[in-house]
Task: structure prediction
Amino acid sequence: MYTQAMDVPNADDAPSVAAPANEAEAAAHFDARCAAGEYVEAKDWMPDNYRKTLIRQISQHAHSEIVGMLPEGNWISRAPSLKRKTILLAKVQDEGGHGLYLYAAAETLGVSRDELLTALHTGRAKYSSIFNYPTPTWADIGVIGWLVDGAAIMNQVPLCRCSYGPYARAMVRICREESFHQRQGFDSLQTMMQGTDAQRAMVQDAVNRWWWPVLMMFGPHDKDSQHSETSTKWGIKRISNDELRQKFVDATVEQAKVLGVGLPDPALTWNAERGHHDFGAIDWTEFWNVVNGHGPCNRERLAAKVKAHDDGAWVREAALAFSAKQAARAAA
Ligand code: 3HC
Result:
């Protein structure tokens, strides 16, 4: 879909899009295009802040996909059957692919993959809070599929209609694959729920630990969401953090009944007047602690990611040497 983009733009490359003669007019025209639901493409003129917002969001998203491989990769060698191991391997590989499409989409905005990775490896870039929680049991893997991927789909389907074309197109394939991820998690939990008392208790314990961090994945309440207003104006965000969280709760309550698990929130009740479930207060102190690097596994995740990058240095060197050799041959 996209190039692997091993190369980075040269500092002396001419800008692909000339600055408009009248910036205010160009900005008004741009806003009107977004309001009309048009797609913006990489070579179109765009306001600096639109570009920055997208680089921020797409790169955070890419980092989340890649760091998200770690908690599950931890279980590949311990999956309880060949079938579950094959499914888990496929899922973790899919997440790696999602990261690559997203880095490539971010690169179309004029940032290099090296810059993005350096920001992640030095702790400057964010990735989703959810991947800083541990996976001590096999049930955690099912719960990640059911709840974490379920929440990811809820947030990501609207991104298929995001105003930036390369991001929107990448999201179409990602969402199809995420849908398989959610189904396999539910299927794995359903099997365990039909097993022994100990297996059912393991599922319930994992649901209890993941429920609140999953609700935090949608981001702060709308009133505290600093980027929502501009991102909504430009059609990057189509549905707000709180609306998506509510849709997720409403859908998941029904799925939990089918599974036969409880959700750990005494305040969770159907509100007929609103036509939605009410739910309890989220612990935002915990959320910001995790986002700011102080969650249960932040250090471990970052260290594992940096080690994997360092261990792969020879692959990048070999690929660059091969590409230089081919370029020299072509020039000769
Ligand atoms: N984890 C870490 N940081 C978070 C966060 C979370 N769950 N939710 C919000 N934040 C951060 C924002 O990045 C922002 O920080 P910044 O200014 O340093 O960038 C700050 O909190 C304020 O939040 P806002 O609501 O103002 O930010 P946004 O408007 O960007 O909304 C978002 C946040 C809803 C996560 C949005 O960025 C988004 O939709 N991103 C794309 C989807 C994505 O990245 N999903 C991550 C999970 S991917 C995944 O789960 C993989 C799958 O395989 C399971």
